[in-house]
Specification:
Elements: H1 2-13, H2 20-27, H3 33-66, H4 77-97, H5 102-127, H6 134-139, H7 153-156, H8 159-165, H9 167-173, H10 179-182, H11 190-218, H12 223-227, H13 234-279, H14 286-289, H15 302-312, H16 321-346, H17 362-379, H18 396-413, H19 423-440
Helix pairs in contact: 1-11, 1-16, 1-17, 2-3, 2-16, 3-4, 3-13, 3-15, 3-16, 3-18, 4-13, 4-15, 5-11, 5-13, 9-16, 13-15, 16-17, 16-18
Length: 444
């Protein structure tokens, strides 16, 4: 929430589809603006792609599990990748041909998440034969970081290490709220609506997520059976143990639908960010990716789908691919959030507030946000499963390193000579200021 509040302030001052990379340019010194914008843009692009991977890949996994209920289907990495590809293609088609429907789908998604989550939790709590105690839910500590049930990091290192790397899934869930910033150019009262959207996304996700996880934990019937479920999904096993197979299918539909909506709108956000960054020359082949289909009125978005699919391919040979994708998404997005917030801290006297402002709490909240982002950026590249081998490697460090080397190297070799930041927005601001000046000296 500290990060979201700090971002909301900046978004209110600079509402644009470029989001963090545009903010970085506006909050830097003039001579540093292109570099800040370039680095922020590439981290945001990495995070945007990875968060779509995490959401849609999870959707594909749950679809695979749902297909095993009342059938003889046995999912494999190959079939899951095939389902994942189908999910991405369908989400891409919706964003390509159904742009005029996105507003209505968004409303459906909001109600689906709210009513679906409430109904799911009520159903499993009401039908569960027994319920776990509060002591089990709130005080039981389980170290599940050992590969194949072996020694975990709690034994090899410490329980504190397990708790810290366990923050990942909650932190990953609370990402992507920059989507509100990327969509500001398509909303009314952008200087307030984008900021409110950021804060609301975090708050509602936190409340609904807490409600959901408590319902699931209290409804566990057999812990070992849940963790080692034949379905491969502990959540699916909880459904089976509480509401039976028919009820489990219905609840799986709710979960899969929520994931599908999330992935669809993640691609919507991705396409806006990539369009804006391409428009300003930040993406190779930008002349192509910066085009907007005249008939459909939507930015080219298949680059986002393609990159997300490629990022999911390591799942064919790695058992921790999903965790790595979530690490990449979290690190990439939060670093792109942190750079403009850090610039706002460094150049505090140059920050021009927008309608949404935190008053005297503004600066300490921004500092707290920067410190938290620095902490999680280190934590989420650490090993998550013991021992570390080709199957359990957290390849988030590989993806992050590639982006750092590429963005910094390409900048030094070439981009610094021609990339000047968000050109279109700068031109529009200059033209606006010029028109105001000329208007003040003209006769009525």
């Amino acid at each position: 929430m500290l990060v979201g509040l700090a971002m909301a302030e900046v978004c209110s001052a600079h509402p644009t589809s470029g989001g963090p990379y545009f903010w970085a340019a506006m909050l830097s010194r003039k001579e540093d603006a292109p570099l800040a914008s370039w680095i922020t843009g590439w981290f945001n692009l990495l995070g945007q792609v990875a968060v779509t991977t995490g959401i849609s890949f999870a959707c594909a996994n749950f679809l695979s599990t749902a297909c095993t209920l009342k059938t003889s289907f046995v999912p494999t990495p190959n079939t899951t990748i095939g389902i994942y590809a189908a999910v991405l293609v369908s989400q891409g088609l919706i964003n390509t041909f159904g742009v005029h429907l996105l507003h209505y789908l968004n409303n459906v998604s909001v109600w689906w998440h709210a009513l679906g989550t409430f109904s799911l939790v009520v159903a499993i709590l009401a039908k569960a034969p027994t319920h776990q105690s509060g002591r089990f839910v709130f005080q039981t500590f389980i170290d599940g970081t050992g590969a194949d049930g072996g020694t975990g990091w709690g034994t090899r290192a410490s329980s504190a290490y397990v708790a810290v790397i366990g923050i990942l899934m909650a932190q990953y869930t609370l990402t992507g709220f920059d989507a509100s910033a990327h969509m500001t150019e398509e909303t009314k009262n952008a200087a307030m609506s984008g900021s409110i959207g950021i804060v609301m996304a975090i708050g509602v996700s936190a409340v609904l997520g807490w409600f959901l996880i408590l319902g699931l934990l209290f409804s566990i019937q057999d812990l070992d059976g849940t963790l080692n479920s034949a379905t491969g999904q502990p959540v699916a096993q909880i459904f089976l143990d509480t509401v039976g197979e028919n009820g489990a299918i219905a609840l799986m539909v709710i979960v899969i639908g929520a994931m599908y909506f999330c992935g669809t709108f993640s691609i919507t956000s991705n396409s806006r960010m990539m369009y804006a960054f391409s428009r300003d020359g930040g993406v190779p082949g930008h002349r192509f990716f910066a085009k907007v289909n005249e008939r459909l009125k939507s930015p080219t978005l298949w680059l986002a789908c393609t990159l997300s699919f490629i990022l999911g391919l390591p799942s064919l040979g790695s058992s921790v691919a999903f965790s790595a994708a979530t690490s990449i998404a979290t690190i990439g997005l939060y670093i792109s959030y942190g750079i403009p917030i850090a610039l706002r801290v460094i150049y505090r006297d140059r920050f021009v507030r927008g309608p949404f402002h935190l008053g005297r709490f503004s600066y300490p909240i921004a500092v707290g946000a920067v410190l938290w982002i620095a902490f999680i950026s280190i934590v989420f590249i650490l090993p998550q499963v013991n021992p570390v081998d080709s199957q359990t490697l957290n390849y988030a460090i590989v993806a992050v390193t590639i982006v750092v080397v590429y963005s910094a190297g390409f900048w030094l070799l070439s981009a610094r000579k021609w990339f000047v930041g968000p050109v279109k927005q700068i031109e529009e601001e200059v033209n606006f200021e010029t028109s105001k000046y000329e208007g003040s000296n003209s006769s009525p």
